[in-house]
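[Structure tokenization] protein backbone as discrete codes

[Encoding] learned vocabulary of local backbone shapes

[Begin record] amino acids and matching fold tokens:

___
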Amino acid sequence: MASSFSINSMIPNSKYLRHLRNYSFPAFAALRETIINSPLKSTSNLSCERSCRFGIVRAASSTEGVVDDYGIADEERTHDGKVLRVGLICGGPSAERGISLNSARSVLDHIQGGDLHVSCYYIDSNLNAFAISTAQVYSNTPADFDFKLESLAQGFRSLSDFTEHLASSVDIVFPVIHGRFGEDGGIQELLERTNIPFVGTGSTQCQKAFDKYDASLELHRQGFVTVPNFLIQGNEMDESRLSKWFAQNLLDIRSGKVVVKPTRAGSSIGVSVAYGVTDSRTKANRIISEGIDDKVLIEIFLEGGSEFTAIVLDVDSSFDCQPVVLLPTEVELQSHGTDDVKEKDAIFNYRRKYLPTRQVAYHTPPRFSMDVISKIREGASLLFQRLGLRDFARIDGWFLPNSTKASSFAGNKFGRTDSGTVIFTDINLISGMEQTSFLFQQASKVGFSHSNILRTIIQHACLRFPALLSHNIISSPSRRRSKSSSVTEAFTKRKKVYVIFGGDTSERQVSLMSGTNVWLNLRAFDDLEVTPCLLAPATSYSDVSGFAKHEVDKKSKTVWTLPYSLLLRHTTEEVLDACLEAIEPNRAALTSHLRNQVMDDLTIGLRKYSWFNGFDISDELPKKFSLDQWVKLAKESQATVFIAVHGGIGEDGTLQSLLEAEGVPYTGPGVMASETCMDKVATSLALQHLTDFGVLTISKDVKKKEDLLKMSISDLWHDLKLKLHCDTVCVKPARDGCSTGVARLCCEGDLAFYINALQDCLPRIPPNSLSKAHGMIEMPNPPPELLIFEPFVETDEIVVASKSRNENAHNLLWKGDSRWVEVTVGVVGKRGSMHSLTPSVTVKESGDILSLEEKFQGGTGINLTPPPPSIMSSVALGRCKKRIELIANTLQLEGFSRIDAFVHADTGEVLIIEVNTVPGMTPSTVLIHQALSEQPPLYPQQFFRTLLDLASERSA
């Protein structure tokens, strides 16, 4: 949220604050009823609503039945014996807990349905078990999750009570715990002791495969090429032995390059590059001292090779297994021309794997020769079998060309090809399952949607348990229903929807996440045909650096309509590269050949099962259009456009104007409202007459960039302080999306640094470059022509603190001297009758302000929705919502938007910060939390469908 102030909070290892009351609104509830009656995939109306909710278990009695949000017990729901009850377990003690929460949310979004009921559970860092609610799953960060745990979950007294509950309440468990306790056999052993069916590999096999050192020994015994390594256990550091190992492997003891990694911490945590014996020892000791692991592996750094990863799917009905390896992915690390040696020596670490960074690109299938791809698939299949893995796994490795030193340790072991050597290095028993993970990237390449691959994995696991053989969930619901004539007819009349995202602004990666999330949620409706569309980023941002954004030639912009698999990427640049790669004739022919080969292998194994209803993703190529052509296509298709382009032409009225000219309905506010809200000065001017109604605006001084570059810094600083009557100033672009280019200036030096950043067209200001501690500040590109200076509003810090050292619960501490707090709130509805959702107060986490990519990967801070009574009374909150609605209606907003503001805790007066007409719609966005806080709750699928239908109703 862009803001002219900050709430600094110190958050100890917190747990939980009670999540408070909900609010209802009849108008929006009526819209919701319309959506519930829309046909959803694999569900009747009521069963879909039920399947979205999860039971809360009373810790005092683990044998009680699970009750959903409608108060319907499992016994009432499953009387016909056809609904498969799945227990989804996430969390765990490892540093990958946040990824586990994201995976759980993704799995939940894609497997729920009338034939499959999901209950969610969480294991904390101390191995305490909880039953968690749906709202808990959509928490935006691990800290936010912990904070709400007390109010949105119920704990079990022991793991024994937990497994006793599972045995009576679920048919099968799907663990999505990454790292320790999830992949090392811990949760598996717990379930095996109670004879509870579960998805995935057994405990003994997990233990052997998870430990990187033990797995390396087993691979060596099985005849595979392995990377030379050295094991350090605990504090046993024999430097002379390590020096000898360096020498044996022809590594310089002072500068030889190695990889240092924990043996039992998942695929990414704690992995780093070291140079020489001393550096290796230091980094190994750091892993041990930080408690990541007490066993550390030092490996030769594999120079000149390419990393790959491959998903393996078991399709056999027996315990012998029949693994099929999907299309592997090549992981290309990119340094973008840097001369930094350490950057060029970079590895595929946690940040590159899970954040939308341009430092990595994926190629599926790999850009390897056919013999190498065949060797990867053959080797991964053999490993899956010989290690006794089950259902699915992800296997990582390296391909090293003949020119590298791999031949010196490869010998005649498995992995040698004419082109080079294939080495397998890591076995991931529970692969990441976020929306754009390798599992879904590779599965979609061979015809599986998210839902289809997950349900196929679950159904395959059921084959091992005789009691579950009668449960035949639908692997591909739409494929099965399309056989009926009535449904086929409905399919031909499906309403077309184009979801557009991307663009040129610094928020384009957030836009990609928003668009992907909207597209996946709307795909759940059988009456919709949803097409994802990329507004292509400029190939070089310097090409447009001399123009203001609104002056860029619209005709030069291009839009790509995307097939399913090409959208599952981390950055817009990567999506565009994948489009260009896909239409290259030789590449397209290779991909088609490999795809058919893998699909044939899968069909041989899966066709014998009645529950498998085929593949549901077709093999398509992306299509390129000019922006004008794309708008005309939308008109000809009678499509509704769902706008998810943050900033730039997505929010300044340009895209809205093009669509309106052709009569194409679209989501969000109209042209005039978009233009006004994009310009922060215009927004203030449009609202300044509302002072008597409790709506206030912040004083602003607007400067041209060209004038700033000419002025004396000292004179400018003095002038700003005099005009704004303040000592601390906030600077922000006059016309840009939220967060970009917003900085706090405390002195002349800060002002000089910021102006130099504008002059040098810096893409970002590094952390702590200004006098007040801060995180990464993303800068607009091209630089803004107009900048706003305004007073930096100080507010009292909100702190979450433990009640006592012996208690898990936490107090919310707020001095409240200024009585102002920052809120963000969504508004939804038709023009003139916009409804305010319940505002959220954001308690920022301690430490640096997060960068854009980190902020929207999983949200930021802890969201209090609604603000607790200790901060704001219900009367003040009600007044605040009325004023938010007044703001929305005055600005002529419609559809949906997000308003950021300060609110006076006693009077409910609103001091407007800005209005975002295309707010973030990522899986954990605060708007989802607010929709879930309504009565009845509005879940993501229904929320996005409501927004889509508001667009259609506007055009009717």
